[in-house]
Design brief:
This protein is an alpha/beta fold. 53% of the residues lie in helices and 15% in strands. It has a five-stranded parallel β-sheet with strand order 2-6-1-7-8, with helices on both faces. Strands 3-4-5 form a three-stranded antiparallel β-sheet, with helices on one face. Helix 2 (34-48) crosses helix 4 (86-96). The structure holds 2'-deoxycytidine-5'-monophosphate. The site of 2'-deoxycytidine-5'-monophosphate has 14 residues, from helix 2, helix 4 and helix 8.
């Protein structure tokens, strides 16, 4: 079987990570959650008490971020749960807008895709990180649907919040991610767009797999 990669981009709450994980498993590829990497840098910057550009760049350059068996490690410490907190949601777009931080993380992401076939999810995978990915998908969904998904995720984790607040936070984050100068969130020219608003994760997985199956006779 040849080594190939799949890029899955889209805004927050479109269902990327849920779908990407299953696709990776089904196709025997490695799942890479690039948002988790930006989140880990944000966590460290908040812990150090400084969001100053120069210091964040230093943090990005010095930190060791690893993703192993679905867990995220920052300098050897498991931060998988911590990076999902609302305090990180609030600041991560700002951190992700710093070009030097992006350059550093993109370098790590490309290295990950060099040796293994990956399913990589993020905002700029199809456009910047892996422009030659064999398959590119852009997942999207109505804001209300995305906010509800995110809200339920937080409530299930025991985090108190309200739907309106979550919707506002997503709107702000999308705007920042789409309007930043350096590799903003946008649809790659050759990406397949899937609106997940009225679909279950299973339906989206099947849609992606059948698309790939039609083109890749031997992998499934
Ligand atoms: O996918 P996520 O919600 O965990 O991503 C968190 C933030 O990280 C998102 O708001 C924008 C940023 N991000 C990015 O700029 N580029 C990526 N490839 C992945 C995430």
């Amino acid at each position: 079987m040849s080594v190939y990669s799949i890029a899955i981009d889209g805004p927050a709450g479109a269902g990327k990570s849920t779908v990407a994980k299953v696709i990776a498993k089904r196709l025997n590829l490695t799942y890479v959650d690039t948002g988790a990497m930006y989140r880990a840098i944000t966590l460290k910057a908040l812990e150090k008490g400084s969001l100053k550009k120069e210091e964040v760049i230093k943090i990005a350059e010095e930190s060791i971020i690893e993703i192993k068996e679905g867990r995220v490690y920052l300098d050897g410490r498991d931060v998988t749960e911590e990076i999902r907190k609302p305090s990180i949601d609030e600041k991560v777009s700002l951190i992700a807008s710093i070009p030097q931080v992006r350059n550093r993380l993109v370098e790590i992401q490309r290295k990950m895709a060099e040796n293994y076939g990956v399913v990589m999810d993020g905002r700029d995978i199809g456009t910047t990180v892996l422009p030659n990915a064999k398959y590119k998908f852009f997942l999207t969904a109505d804001l209300k649907v995305r906010a509800k998904r995110r809200y339920e995720e937080l409530v299930n984790k025991g985090i108190k919040t309200d739907l309106k607040k979550v919707e506002e936070e997503l709107t702000k984050r999308d705007k920042q991610d789409m309007e930043r100068e350096h590799s903003p969130l946008k649809v790659a020219e050759d990406a397949v767009i899937i609106d997940t608003s009225d679909k279950t994760p299973e339906e989206v997985v099947e849609e992606i797999l059948s698309y790939i199956k039609r083109r890749e006779k031997n992998v499934l």
